[in-house]
Every structure is written in structure tokens, then in C-alpha cells.
Amino acid sequence: MVLADDNVDQANFSFATGNLYLPIVKIPLLGTFGVTLQLVDESKLEFVLQDFQLTTIASNSPTVFSFETGELFIPAITVAERNGNQVQYTKVNMISIPDSDPLRFQLVGISNQQGDNLFTVEDNFNSIVPIHLTIETAKWDAEKSQLQVQGKGNKNKQVVISNVSSNQVLGTTTISNKGEWKLEIPALAIVPCQIQAKLDNDMAKKSVEQAPAGCDTNSSPSTSNRVVLAANDLGMHCADLDYQVFSILPPFNVVHAQVLQRGTQSTLPQLLDNSQVDVVYQATSNPKDPVGKESINTGNNSKNGAKSNFWESLDGSHTIGGLAYRSIYPGQDKLGLCDPLKEICLSSLDLFEPLVLDTGLPVPDPVQLPKLVPVQQAMPGTSNSPQYFKRFDIDLPFFKNFPFGGIIQQVHWFAADGIPILPKDDNGNLNAYPLMRIQAVAKNADPTQTSLGFVDIVLPVASEADCQTCHADPDDFGNGAATRLASVKTYADGTPWEIMRQASAPGPEKLLNASKINILRLHDAKQGSRYTSSADGRSTPCNSGTEPACLANRTPVQCSQCHYSPALDLAQTGPVDEPEQGEVGRQQTRHISMSRAMHDYHGQFTELFSPMLSPDDPQRTPEVAQQLLETSCYQCHPGKKTHCLRGAMAQAGIVCQDCHGNMNQVGNDFSDGLPTGDGLDLTKRVPWANEPKCQSCHIGDAVTIAKLNTSDFILSKAGIRLLQTYQKSVAKQADLPFIAMPQSRFAENENLYRLSKGHGGVMCEGCHGSTHAIWPVPPSDNAPNSVTLANDNLAALDLQGHAGTLIECTTCHEAGSLKLTLKGPHGLHPVNDPTWNKRHEDVVEKDRNACRACHGLKGEGTVLARVAADRTLQAKEEQPNGSKTITLKKGTVVSCSLCHKNELAR
Q: Which of 130, 227, 348, 773 could form a disulfide with 260 if both were Cys (CB 3.0 to 4.6 A apart)?
């Protein structure tokens, strides 16, 4: 029989006593039972059914409870091991002993969340051992030209050693009867920087000691006939480490991936779909990671314990994360599972409770909306098991029922929405730039055995929410602005609201939780007298801080229950009220949006949030700009420690306000009229949906810009791009309009960069990197003697062999297959191509302006003509050194006169 579905409140399995104790087991259609099994025969691992007591009879339950099948299957329990660790398992399988009286069961296996067998049963109780693999040493012996690796694991098991960077198998060995293994690998052509050992579903990684400076970090481009392009959508996601008070965003990362069949001499590259390949992800690491060479993020567990309490169970039926985010999900009436005229309908998220460790929030398929067809993505877990992308999008609805949205045609990508990654690695160190290896595998093939191609990308995530700067008590190092100096110090009835101190706040994030509690209490003091019921709209005030309606008494709180956020509107409905769910239902049409509540409200405090200087202000030095950022956007957003804005734009001196405007302009959104009943004003900004575009700064090339009146623009010194996305004359306008140049060769084809595609249907982020993290990201030097390399650069290194925008045509095309053409991305000619090098004068003669666009009106060169890597070109004329070749260093601006007579100067 099946004893339980997926609702087991708690369990205790002690290796010392052999007791398997299941106090509460819910059995569908039967009821709730108390179960205790007692170990009676240690040599055979036999348990006797000691107690099986019906505590609650379910409606329509059968009168006879049968043990006919003899199987005891418990899908989800928490096991307290002898060493004190708390481990959650998905299966404890026990087989009944025939004709035993009382009924006996034998333990046959225990599995974890990912379905991996964590314990095996051999001949006695002591043989239950975790399948655990370690690498004790990994060392390169240069004198012997030999890689020496040794470790420990389960006896008689086979270990496979491979190069982390290339996935190349280096050797295999069998673990001895003592649980030890050793492997010496001679004569390696390429010495790995880091090796990986795999045993069944267990895996360990270790950096190679004394590896040479030129060890393999996979800086050579892939030569597979499949090309994998992938990117996180935003360049930075945020998540809390503690969800028990309130949270802004859940653990939720989004990755898009495209797979191409590489072109040949006679065929163009082709995008593949989910009928041809599968795409998976698993954690990986970078030997030059600035955080540490062995920083890897496989799941919620680290050597220091859980990384977050998001999955922590409160009562066996609900998790902290589930309770926090249930209010943003539609009620079960939307699924036909409840009649709101007869009862309060629970959140549809409750159907997924308790949320399984390392499994993300359910995400409805946008194509199926308004029908709710959800999928959940998961972390790879301690075994680092490959996880499939659960969705493939062709045409992607994006708020299609609103004027700012629509259906994005032919995105042709694999999507993994909601990967619940957190900003701590498995060693317990903060790392906001964890890596995942995105692999294409043959359709329905074993992803651990086959790889058609891969790319390593960052799934960025930060927990740097600095509410405590203003909302912590001064004795806890806050500035006191929203505590002792708060404008409102009492609730509506005059009772002072108490400032929570760090020492009294719940852990583990005590300072942040103290600040969050102070925020809720201040919110109750300011707004509590106007609180209304989500169920029927009646007044439910918080006048003294003690009422049930007070936010501080309703934790965990999710702010978007009242303050709409498009980022959390997975069903793409816009602001809604949901009285069907009772007091936990949404009431978003009565309140301003989350963005307006944060940006517009806080923007009034200019003494706390400094205005940014204009890009052309001589007082705005890089140091001053950083200081102003840290006292404006970076008061709340990641930036002081974690770099949300990084990469090419950050290196060019661009700051948040240059693109988005000031805080009040960002907060001046569509929701202003909601509290007064005036509805939505969709002529104004919609957060996450209306953003500046590439064309707002990249307005054209050397030829087209020369024809424009740029007097109201702030041009860069190079004269090719702008330094802000809006005109000087409107910089202080409340409804800040962004510059639109749809005729620019750099204009995206959709409303948002992250949803746009270009050359050959390839998504823009596949070639340029994620929003806010445009390649390259410093440090980007992958020279043999370089010590650190930003994780964001690994994708470009995998694909083309050097950091920066994908510019090497051979990434997707076969070398030599391209003719004299200007049909590359943004009208680019073939790069590093011998045919173009020798015959480009044919194009010059036909259309000189086509060349001037990037190489300058007089052939002098522009920033658009900088070489992305060291190049050796054939020169038509003999050079001063007597050679007919010319070597250009990375960053050199290519002018006509570098190699020959300047034909564009005429």
C-alpha cells in the first residue's frame, strides 16, 4: 500500500536506536495516522509496526485499511541522524516480511530530494553508509609529468576523474576495501586547473595544486558542431537569506538558452528546438573565481548549514517561503477546486506545500495563460544532478493584454524560470556570481553521459538589501532616520511603537530582521488606521500595534499582496483584488505599486538619497559618481559590495540615473491613481516593462550620427554613443521620456533588450551578455599569469576564446564559409576572415559609406572599429619592418592607413 502522498509533518530516524518515528502521516481519502516502527532485528534491518493509530478520519474514507501490498512508502520525511544533522529525504522504502505477526518491515533504501540513493543496505545495520566521495589531494608533479589524485569513498565503487573545464575524462579507478582510491595520470597534453570525481550520483571537485600557469581554463573556443548560447535575463536577481519577517523577492533566477547547429560551407547555422535536443544545467566553478577557486553553488545546504530558511517547515504542512508567497498566487477557485461562494479558497501555492528543498516556486507557462499550467525548476543538489530546462518557447506572451506588452515572436529559446539559487556557495561564502554549466544533450539521452555542447554562465543573485541603513537603531549602526528620528513615533491611538534591536530580533539574520520589524511597525503606525480587509473591504485598522491586522503581527509578509510588482506577476494579470482568498488575498487595486512606494516615496528624502550629477558635469569624477551611487541607488540595491551594474557600461562610467532617471522619475509610474479609484494610467512607466532601450544611447554609427542634430544630447568623447538615455532639455521632467532611434543599426526589435533578438534569430543577450552585465566584466584578463577572472566572462571564453561581445564569426559559422558580405550582426563584415582581409576593397568601391559607418568619415577609425583580440592581418603593401603582415593588439582602432593607402579620405 501507499502510506502517504507528500504530507509528512516530521520524522525521526536514529541510527543509535533504530527507531523510525512518524508522528503524523496524512493518507489521502483515509485520514491522519500516528505511526511508530521499532527496530527488532539489527542484522536484517527489520522493524515491527509498533503503533498505527487513526487520529482523524477523512471524509469518504474506506472502513477497511489493507496491508495487502506489504509496502511502506513514505515520500517525504526529515531524518535526524546520529551526528545531529537534519536531512530531508523523499523516500524511505520498507518491504513487509511475509507472514510476520505483528507486521514487520525491512528497510531497503533511503533517497534524497533529487531521488538519489543516499543510503544502501547490505547485510547488517552498520552497513548503512552514506554514498560519499571526497578528493583528498590533487597535485601536478612537473618532474614526473604526472597528475596525482587520491581520495575516499565507498568500497569497490568506480570513480571517474575528469577535467572540469573541458569535461574530458582523464581516468577511472576502483575504490579499495578500505574505502580509499588513488590515480596517477601521466603525459597529459593539457594539465587541468581543476578536476572532478564522480561516483554514481555523488561528485567532488578540487583545484590542482602546482598546476602550471597555462593550465586549461577552457580559454579555447568550443569546436562542437552544436553551439549553446545562454544568459540570465537581468544581470542581477535579488533574494533574501531570511524570509520569516517579510521579503521583497524570492529565490528566483531565470535563464534562457538557445542551441544552434553550427553552419558549414554550404549551410547557415540553424536554431534547434526541443524535438531535437534537451538542455540541462548543473553547478560548476571557476578556478580563477575572485571569491575562491573552489566556489560552487549546488543547493541550499552548505558546510555551515542551510543558506536560507525559505524551505524551513513551520508545522509540517507549510514552509516559511510558501506562507510568504501564497498571497501572490491565484486562489484554487481559478483551478476549479473551490467554490468561493461557499468557502474561502486557499492559494494555489498551497497545493505545492510543503515546498521541497531546493525546488523553486511554481511558474505558469505564459503560453497557456490564463490557464494555469505550472512547472518548477530546482537546484542540482548535493549530487549536482543535471536539471532540465522545463519549457521551450517559440512565441512568448509578455503581458499581451496590455498596451505595453504583446507576443514576442520566434524567441526560440529553452527557458528555466524560477531556479531557486542563493548568494552563498557550498562553503558558506557569499558569492553573488555563481556559475551553472548549460549543456545541450541528445533528445532523451542521459545528460550525465552525453554533451553536445556547453557554456558556463552566471546566475547572479544578491542579498544586499540595506534597509538597516535607515531602519536599524543607531546603537545597531543605523543612522536613525527611520527609527529614533522617524516622523511618526506612535500608532494611531498614541501608543509609541517600539524599536526592535538587533539583540532581540530573531535569527539568523538578526540585524536585517530587526530592520524589517521596524519597517512593519513604522508602516503600521503610519498607515494602520486605514487598513481594510482583503475579503470584503471593511475597515480592519491597526491602531495600537496589537490588532491582528497589524503587519508586524502577520509575518511572514509579502509586500506585493498590496503593492503590485510586475516582477512577481507570474500570471501577467496586472493589479488585482482577490477576496476569494479571504484576509490573505491580494488587494492591489487599492494601493500604489511597489516601485512607486519605494522610489517615489523615498525620493523625497534628498538628504538621505543624494541626487546624481549630470554626465557632463566636470565635478562628476568616477570617485564622486561612486560616492553618490552609494548614497542613492545603492542605499537599497546591490552595489556597495555586490556589483549589480558591472561590465562594459560600468567601465564606461555609466550609472543607474544615466539610464533610468532619478528616484522620483522611476517611481512616477502607472499606479498613481489606484488609491483614489482613478485606475491605471498606462501612459506612464510600468516597472520592469518600460525601460530605456539600447537605441536610447546607441543612436547610430559615424555616418548616421553626422547627419543628426545632437545639440540636445550628451555625446561621449568618441562621438558614437550618448552618455544618458534622455535629452538635456527634459532631464528634470517628471514623466521622463527616453530617446527613441528605431532607425539605428543598434536598435533592438522588441520593447526590452532582454526579450530581443537579432542576427539569425539569436537573442541579444546570447552575444552581448545579460542586462547590467554586458561583456566584458572586469577582471577579464585570462592571461596565464592572471590571478582572478570574473565569472561572467567564462561564457565568451567558452564560445570564442576571449572575453567580450561575441564577435568571432567562427563561433557559429564554419571558417571560410562566409563571402564578402555586410550581413553580420548590426551590418558587420566577417571578422578575422582571410577572404575579407584580402578582398574588402571590392566592397569599398561599391559603397564607401558602408565602411565609413564604423571606420570613420575619413577612414580614421572609431570605437566601432576596435579589434576585440590580438590579430595578425595580411597587408597589401610592405610594412616598415619588411613584412607583409601587420599585428594589431587588442583594442587597436582600425583605420585604413594602418595597412595601406587611405581610400576613405577622398
A: 227
